[in-house]
Amino acid sequence: MKDKLKFLTKQSLDKKIKTKWFVGVNIFLLVLLIVLVNIDRIVTFFGGDFNEEISVIVHDEVGGYDAFKTYFESSAESLGEMKNYKVELSSDSLENLQNSLEKDDNKIVVSLQSDPTNYLKGQMISFDEIGTISTQLIQSSINTLKQEIAIRESGLTPEQVAALTSPATIETVLTNPDKENEANKDLIAAGVIMIIILPSFFLILTLVQMIGSEVNDEKTTRSMEIIISNVSPQTHFLSKVFSSTLFVIIQGVLLILEAIVAVLVRVFTSGGMNLGVASGDIASQISSILTQVSDSGILTTVMQGLPWILLLFLFSFVLYAIVAGVLASMTTSMEDFQQLQTPIMLVIMAGYYLAIMASQFEGALFIKIMSYIPMISFMVSPALFMLGQIGIWELVISTLITIVCTWVFFKYGLRIYKVGILNYSSSKLWKKMWKSLKTKEPKKKANA
Question: How far is 353 from 381, CA to CA, in rounded Å?
Answer without folding.
Answer: 13
